[in-house]
Amino acid sequence: MAHGDITHIDIPVGDTDRARTFYSGLFGWDIAEAPGFEGYPMWRAPNQISGGGLAPREEGFTSPRSYVEVDSIEESLAQVEALGGKVLMGRSQISPTSWWAVFEDLDGNRLGLYEGVTTMD
């Protein structure tokens, strides 16, 4: 994926097993937990391109959140602030080769940033 592409969508859920049954039945998504990501099942659409996770619902995370791939999280977060947005969570490591962050735009929408390469196979 390239800078600016939507790379991942997290869906907040209260009951992972119930959500797994619902989404796999509704859309045919392949949903499984990867080693090292227990409690966070990842979904992949039949096109084998679209995907995301079923993440625990918590305060501040009650609506689906899209993640946009960027070349540099630090540079993107600086742009967020320069353009009037708000950094909610700075760069945080996912794996040795990937990171994420969360920001809020001018209308209060919360989006994630993704940088790097994550292999789940």
TrEMBL record:
InterPro entries: Anthracycline_SecMetBiosynth (IPR052164), Glyas_Bleomycin-R_OHBP_Dase (IPR029068), Glyoxy/Ble-like_N (IPR053863), VOC_core (IPR037523). CDD domains: SgaA_N_like. Transmembrane segments: none annotated. Pfam families: Ble-like_N (PF22677). Residues 5-116 form the VOC domain. This is Glyoxalase-like domain protein. The lineage of its organism: Bacteria, Bacillati, Actinomycetota, Actinomycetes, Micrococcales.
